[in-house]
Description:
This protein is of the alpha+beta class. The chain has 3 domains: 1-31; 33-104 and 162-199, Chitinase A, domain 3 (Roll), CATH 3.10.50; 106-159, Thrombin, subunit H (Beta Barrel), CATH 2.40.10. The chain is 18% helix and 30% strand. It has helices at 2-13, 18-28, 76-82, 183-188; strands at residues 39-48, 55-59, 65-68, 90-95, 109-113, 133-137, 143-151, 155-159, 169-179. Strands 1, 2, 3, 4 and 9 form a 5-stranded antiparallel sheet that branches. The protein has a 4-stranded antiparallel sheet with strand order 5-8-7-6, with no helix packed on it. Helix 1 packs antiparallel against helix 2. The protein is elongated, with a radius of gyration of 24 Å. 13% of the residues are buried. Bound molecules: zinc ion. Residues 188, 190, 192, 197, 199 line the site of zinc ion.
Amino acid sequence: MFFKIITIIRKKLGRQHILVLLPTCLLINFSMKVSKNTVVTLTYTLRKDNAEGDVIQKVDESKPFIHLFGTGTLLPAFESSLNGLESGENFAFNLTAEEAYGNSNEEAIIELEKEIFEVGGLIDKEMIAVGKIITMQDQDGNPLDGMVVAVKDNGIIMDFNHPLAGKNLHFSGTVLDIRDPSENERSHKHVHGNGGYQH
Ligand SMILES: [Zn+2]
């Protein structure tokens, strides 16, 4: 594709103009692909199981997902499925639960004493209800989201598995933009500005 265009320019404009036009072609058009150390902007719809599955999350053009690829913070199978795409290309792929957030771990489902959830000796029945997500802390003070699975007489059963654990996922969307990271972004290993870190 790229070489074809050079040939056309050469025929039409003669050699002198090639030096001017070549960098423009390289910057705007065909060379950037999603790969390690590119800043990628994309939209996506995440569904359960397949293209017809229930929508879990939708990220559209009004607030697209922007990310520095290859920094190890995304699911490896998610990154490799997008690898090599160009700006404007659509994608659709499945991730098995193993490739995504892993299988549900029985040990992450635990019963906690009811007192832990009491405020002034009372339980907030609206907040501590089946299906509610509660942010708690582990022994090191890290925030940990858990879902209320059951409310018993003396205890609350909480599931600390990732909400998407055990689920096969389907992603579809469009690559909106691909660019090189700035020096700062490269060293910080994340994106700055709109949709990224503001500092
Ligand atoms: Zn930064």
